[in-house]
């Protein structure tokens, strides 16, 4: 069995994880507060300007989030290369989950094992152009698969509906092999596609612009939940 992915769902139909990449960079905590608690996880997109064409957050931001929200589930998505060089520096900030890209390391199994050895849920991510087949060998030892629905690097991009096929493939693989990893989708997620994602088997919706880009972030989150049928 995988590393207790479904334990993180706490019996919910799906989880909502606002990405602070779309929050006000000068007032991230204020942006989070404006959601009125209408979220399950806090998603942190870490970008190095090398693996993806953008720079974002480092360990101090995750440390500050943990200090401000000691009981929150913090979901750190590292879009960095080589991924294994960044694991320890983020592990000390005490996130609950570290997800790394299969494309960003030549030693994905070893890197995921390192995350797990530090007492953190390990996750693996794939870009839109990467096949699910690439990560099948590690699916029995992880807590989450993150399927990118846009090319990583910038928020506000248009959702690629083709990724729904990957979600369904992962759902089938999980059932056939009696595994427990969660399936998360990031990129262009919002009211227009939340229902399709959840009905396809997605467990965690990462929404950035759809929540933080709305003048009423709390209501935006509630609308996504309603649209997805929760």
Describe this structure in words.
- By secondary structure, this protein is of the alpha/beta class.
- It has one domain: Alpha-Beta Barrel (TIM Barrel).
- Helices cover 29% and strands 19% of the residues.
- It contains 8 helices and 8 strands.
- It has an 8-stranded parallel beta sheet with strand order 1-8-7-6-5-4-3-2.
- Helix 6 links the parallel strand 7 and strand 8.
- 48% of the residues are buried.
- The mean pLDDT is 93.
Outline of this structure?
The chain has eight helices and eight strands, in the order E-H-E-H-E-H-E-H-E-E-H-E-H-E-H-H. With 230 residues, it is of the alpha/beta class. The protein has a single domain, classed as TIM Barrel (Alpha-Beta Barrel).
Can you tag this structure with a few keywords?
TIM Barrel; 29% helix; single chain; 230 residues
Helix proportion range: 25-40%
Mean pLDDT: 93
What is the overall silhouette?
globular
- Strand adjacency order, main sheet: 1-8-7-6-5-4-3-2
Our Rg estimate from Cα atoms comes to 16 Å
- Per DSSP E runs of 2 or more residues, the count of β-strands stands at 8
Q: What's the CATH topology name?
A: TIM Barrel
**How would a textbook summarize the main sheet?**
8 strands, parallel
Which blocks of ≥5 consecutive residues have pLDDT under 50? none
Structural category: alpha/beta
Give the full name of the CATH homologous superfamily. Aldolase class I
The helix count comes to 8
User: What string, H for helix and E for strand, traces the elements in order?
Assistant: EHEHEHEHEEHEHEHH
Strand fraction: 15-25%
CATH classification, class level: Alpha Beta
Count of individual domains: 1
Distance between the termini: 27 Å
Which CATH-level-2 architecture?
A: Alpha-Beta Barrel
